[in-house]
Design goal:
Elements (H helix, E strand, L loop, with lengths): L1 H5 L1 H6 L4 E7 L2 E6 L2 E7 L4 H10 L8 E4 L2 E5 L8 H19 L1 E4 L2 H30 L6 H31 L4 E7 L8 E3 L3 E3 L6 E3 L2 H11 L5 H11 L4 H12 L10 H26 L1 H5 L1
Helix pairs in contact: 4-8, 5-6, 6-9, 6-10, 7-9
Length: 300
Amino acid sequence: MNNIRKYKDVFKNLDLVPNKIEYRGKTIIVDTNKGTFALKQNIKRNKNIYEYLSNRHFNYYPKTRNYKEFEITEYNNDILIPREQKIIDLIELMALLHNKTTHYKEVTEDDYKEIYEDILSNIEHLETYYLDRINIIESKIFMSPTEYLVARNISKILSALYYSKEELNKWYEIVKDKKKIRNVCIHNNLSLEHFIEGENTYFISWDKSKISLPIFDFYKLYKHHGLEFDFYNLLKLYEKKYPLQKEERILLFILMAIPDKIPYVDSEYNKCKKTSEIIDLIYKTEYIISPYNSKEGEKN
């Protein structure tokens, strides 16, 4: 009840009577006399994003009310849809978002150079990180399961980083003299958890949305669900609805190929599990990318 009192001004202003409140991460779910709502604090950019999307005739976001620093949106539960079908529906809505918001922005070589240097710095940092790790691992008499997993796959990890660096140089040579770049509105945090299919279908949690390159939405989705779904065919589906330019696809594959660092976790079991997922994703990314790098793929 104390939590409900904390937000009483919000509810009163919106003519809502709260019955039950539940915390889910940074979101507060409130059951009221007029239905269930999601309440977020300190949401400033979403109002502008929603107005922009509405002007572009993309209305797949929740109905929203605002009071001071709060955003209150209608909350609907998903209908029961197989995840394999839901990810397809998400891809199609993502492609629609990008189609509706596509525009071209004038750029200079410095704009592309900034992207190039940021990605190159990350690749070189990871190369140093994994080389240091393998030097430490190989100096040990006994390896932990995680260390053994890294040692067995270090050539594949370094190969993925080498591929990313080589392709990054190739990408920069293609784009450095271009005067325009294709931008869209990206959600920037797409996952099945942020996609609602019920009475209304929409994306939620637009907090990180911005104007940027279209590939970042697909990349973030891949990082969330890469090991769960067939992203080779999902990419083909996406490109049927929103074909990528050659340089965009190259950059997407570079980002997908860059492996994560091994996270700090609470147990050897969890660390080994996370490391295995990193390595599995390297192999899966190679499977997705390889056909495009073949002579047949270059024609497409």
